[in-house]
Amino acid sequence: MRIDIISIFPEYFDVLDVSLLGKARQSGLIDMNVHNLRDFTHDRHRTVDDTPYGGGAGMVMKPEPWGEALDSVLGSEPTAVSEDSPLVIFPSPAGDVFNQAMARELSQEKSLVFGCGRYEGIDQRVFDHTATRARVRLVSLGDYVLNGGEVAVLAMIEAIGRLIPGMVGNPDSLVEESHEDGLLEYPSYTKPQTWRDLEVPAVLRSGNHGAVDAWRREQQIERTRRVRPDLLGEA
Length: 235
Ligand code: ADE
Fold this sequence. Notes:
Elements (H helix, E strand, L loop, with lengths): L1 E6 L11 H8 L4 E6 L12 E2 L9 E2 L1 H12 L12 E11 L2 H7 L4 E5 L8 H7 L4 E6 L9 H12 L10 H4 L18 E2 L2 E2 L9 H19 L1 H6 L1
This protein binds adenine.
């Protein structure tokens, strides 16, 4: 998968060199390219923002640097938008809420472009113009406000990246986790059998696989009912 990220803080993405994602980059499974939005400005101060039309607090990101940065990633030739067009994601608290199903869907894409906004947002015409040559999605990490899209993009790339075939050593470990079947994960235990007077549940030591599966399922349902009852209807 090719991933392009446009941001005024490219150094945020240095952490993508560590851990599993770092290995995926080295092995070529993920081809990651981080672009500094300020490289597409032409003034001495490398300005990316200006005051909002209509007044109001804060600054808005100017369209020109975004236009040039997106031209350099998408190409500047006009192309009809189809299912095969590149997908450009702008993290935004006003977007569709990111979840495991969206991560799985996005992990099937050949190429993803992330545009990280800051300040009070990006001039609306950037979204409108990008939608004439690419598929565009606004995606929110959740119902809270971050200072910019960078942290949201890091979280999305980690969730998407680990679903790319070949990324996780044992693909079975992906199937039994929280949210994959719409429920939260069951509790896990390892050795020793007793730790600080706390015992591993007997059923897990019984060797009875049917009983283990049934216990884990019950635990998933009980935990989901307690913590996230909103998920039970969907599951
Ligand atoms: N930018 C600011 N807040 C955000 C959020 N909740 N999700 C995604 N991007 C954001």
